[in-house]
Amino acid sequence: MSNQNIWFVTGASKGLGLTLVKKLLNQGYKVAATSRNISDLESAVGVTSDAFLPLAVNIKSEESVQQAIEKTISTFGKIDVVVNNAGYGMLGGLEETTDQEARDNFDVNVFGSLNVIRKALPYLRAQQSGHIINISSIGGFVGGYPGFGIYCATKFAVNGFSEALDAEVKPFGIKVTVVEPGYFRTNFLSEGSLITPKNPIDAYQNVRDSQNLHQNQMDQQQAGDPEKAAAAMIKIANQPDAPLNLFLGADAYQLAHQKIASVQNDLETWKELTNSTGF
Question: What percent of the chain has a predicted confidence (pLDDT) above 90?
């Protein structure tokens, strides 16, 4: 691939999506970028150019996503790389998170991405090429964090459907990568970006400790550089053998190995019982 390729990036008004869009435009790519509020997006990107197509999109609406995809095709002629970046964090214990709060997180993090995939694929299949990059999290591979159960569940879902999608679209020449970042210095942990339950339960001190750690100690102290994360995504989009799983950050690398070792230990410790369950 080259910088002649067309990118479609959701959730582009802040965080990793914004960094990616700015870097792509700076490197000469044509970019369609989406956000709920187009003025916020235009202001954040700060670029007026024929190469930049800002789009106001409700990621939860199939019709809105369809219109954005069609506008991108009519403007740039095609889409080569789709980045499903739109999403937000939810930090609350499972018992204290309401049904609606949980469903809202799934609606954006999971079903929003599925809307984009469903509407983009007809074009990618027709051109027999493309690359879908789904932004997950190390929390989509390792789930043992108090208060992050719903968020991790959404990201485990993203990992799961990405693996299936990769198998489904490979015959059409379409690549899939699920990106699993650790902690990066974006606004992910800042007020307004990380949602907490409206009805917290005092008994969950471990969840409150996790909330305090993330919101008051870790915010803007994260070790990961979003500029380097964006550069890594552009690099793998230009690789013919792009990975299905791309972990980003030394913390993500370490945590993934710990999870793999833990699963391997459980497998071998309980091997006899596991294998005894057949007829």
Answer: 85
Class of domain 6-276: alpha beta
Nearest by Cα to 35 from 27, 50, 45: 45
How many other C-beta atoms can be found within 10 angstroms of the C-beta atom of residue 162? 23
Active-site pick, 155, 162, 175, 183: 155
- Tell me whether residue 155 is one of the annotated catalytic residues: yes
| pLDDT(2) > 70 | no
Catalytic residue among 13, 113, 136, 137: 136
Residue 76's φ and ψ, nearest 5 degrees, are: -105, -10
Spans of all domains in the chain: 6-276
| Mean pLDDT within 50-75 | 97
**C-beta atoms surrounding 270 within 10 Å:** 11
* pLDDT number for residue 212: 84
